[in-house]
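User: I want to check something. If I give you two sequences, will you return the structure for each one separately, not as a complex?

Assistant: Yes, each is folded on its own. Here is the first sequence with its structure:
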Amino acid sequence: MTGHGAGGVQQALVTFAQALRHTHDVQTIVWKNSPIIAQLVAQGIDFQVLPLRAGRRIPNVFQAFLLRRLLQAFSPALVIGFSPRGYIEAKIASRNEEWVLAARIGTMASQKIARTLNADAWIANSREMGLLLQEVGCEADRIFVVENFLPSNKTHQVVERDDGRKRIGAAGRFVKRKGFDLILEAATILAAKNVDVEWRLAGDGPERARLEKLVAQAGLKDRIAFVGWLSAGEKNAFYEGLDFFVCPSIDDPFPRVMLEAAQAGVPVVATDFVGSRTVFTDRTNALIAKENTGASIAIAVSELISSPSLAQELSRNAAELFNSRYSLDAGEKRIHKAVALLARLKRR
């Protein structure tokens, strides 16, 4: 069960269902008009749609009634609510039921995590997230770490070009904590130095209009393109057409876009935050900026442009990292182990 939206935590529902469906009876439940329905269809995952989309204007009691009927018909041993909102909806629907109810957490915001403190268990997407859950009061023996992974084992090849212009991508929700302002700072610095770079920004969000206005004011419209949300098929073409990928997050536990870039073998430049330190080793499979500034990102990008051998090494190592740790096969092992342990728990 997941709330609305199409962020990383909602996409995690797709990968969990993909990893479990061949060995477990899985019922995936989403709200009508959920953006992730297209991903479920693309992966061939069966799902149930509740006739109303989650929203504050809909009484929780009616949401609970609809969801409770689906859950009772399926009679699960385990229910996982993705995101605090998805968990709360599942919690209301699970009153007096015997199944174990777990919250899959993908936020570092302690006030949001606090909404899940009455869960039977918690699934964290990183070791750091697991430690944070303990700090806010979750029981250590009921926390299970399942790092993000992607619903595919296929790695891609970057398309070689010789037109001289380097294409750099970034992707995610356009919100403050994702750090897209740093992209604009880096682009301005590189443009001032006449470095021929084209930026492609994939995604959408409340900050998009402001960012587009800043790009226009800085005279960067010929260097920065906003390409919107991408479908699964469009993502492959997006990454395969890049020379480098930049993840400029300021506060982010585990951005999936870093895994997508690694899967495509695209050299990654990342700011120094929890997620980048969880996934990458600096100068082995990515460049981690020395400071979380546009200037530091520009320096890292310039280094990759001037050192093709370093870029190739990072590309190769990132693809190997994906295969060994973040592919569907690797993720299946982690989630199967966690689900086996979760099934043994007693309700709190």
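And separately, the second sequence with its own structure:
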Amino acid sequence: MARRDEDKPSVARTRTTVLENAHKVSVPKRGVTKRRAASTSSRAKTKITSSRQVQLTSSRTLPKRKLLPRSLMAKTKPARIHKHKLALLIACHNEEMVLETTIKSAVASGQKIEDIFVVDDNSSDKTREIAVRVLGVLNVLTVPRSGKAGAVYQAIKVFGFEERYQWVHISDGDSIFGEDYFRNYRRGLTGKEYVVAVGFIQSLRGNWIANYRSLSYTYSQHVMRRFQSWFNMISVLPGPITSFRTDIIQYLDFRTGVIAEDFDVTLQIYRMGLGKVRYIPDAICYTQDPQNLRDFCKQTFRWQRGFWQGVTRHRIGTKLQSIDISIGYQVFQMVLWLFEFGFLVPYTMFETGKWIILPILMVLDFTVVSILTIFSAIVAKRYWVLAALPYYYFLRYVELGIFLWAFVEIVILRRYHSTLQKGWVTEGRRYAIDKAALREAHG
């Protein structure tokens, strides 16, 4: 395109030069033979061609702005392409139980149905059939088994989100969007410095594990995530509630082969300095949690292994970026807690003989946990999370043990460093959503 723009003014100037010098070309008199006329014409053409070549050659050394007249510059301005605000991409595999509910909740919360897309990771059930019936065949893509990250990457390219939309929201097949989720989300997509946005993740009403997760989510996001947002150090972009500004997608690698792709993409954004992360707490999305302890442990292992993979892969702690401080603080908390209860308290009791120290510390800690639980229940208006108090420490210790186990596997034993995640980690663990949970999600 640049070459053509340079040629146009050069040709125009050449034509002007030729016309100005036209009177210098001798016209053959009558009686001149046809052969002489042809020779004269040939020399004139050679002169014009030579002149044009000189003009073209010299024009390349001149600044473009001096060569292009205003009229031509106006014509060469790129046409403005209108982009829609936000697309929703739902990645799923065998989600026939929940997919239609997810799509309907998105529409009810303010997302236009023509801006909703589904990528089906080669499901063996009726997932694709349901998606096509609700959205139409043009908004549904089925890919060979690739895992979530691979399926999302292919969908971004096939649907052309980078050319058609300003933002793309990635979500899971079990996401139930709260009332006004997308209306609130769009209002939060402001400021040129923000390249990623995250909403508020919450557990669907369910069993004892959902109660525990709801307690953890409420406290961590109302307190910790707000703090992280103020200092631009949000440490993870949760899969179901994250949107990317489409002009940064070209810099991101969704096919790294890691276990937790959302955490790895988070670290990529910070390491490359692409921009800030916007937190939109009014955009609440509900998601399903494991239904038994076995699945809870599997999911936690995946998260913690992915965490340590990201820490080692991106060398967290070796730089003074905000993400290093954020993750370093989280690890320090865990290490400090282990040091206190695993070494300092037993050592003090053994040296002083005051065995009452441990019960006193446990009562104090339980008091703090109870206050946080009551606070979370009031803020979230989910008073049933108080039921998680009796078994809070049990699940907390399970998570802590998995955290340490994953550290040994990834950092010390160097396992899972070449893992290519192709399985769908939620496969076989979906359940039908009851009416009570839907009423709570939709207000």
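Because they were folded independently, the notes below concern the second chain alone. The first strand starts at residue 84 and ends at 92. The mean pLDDT is 81.
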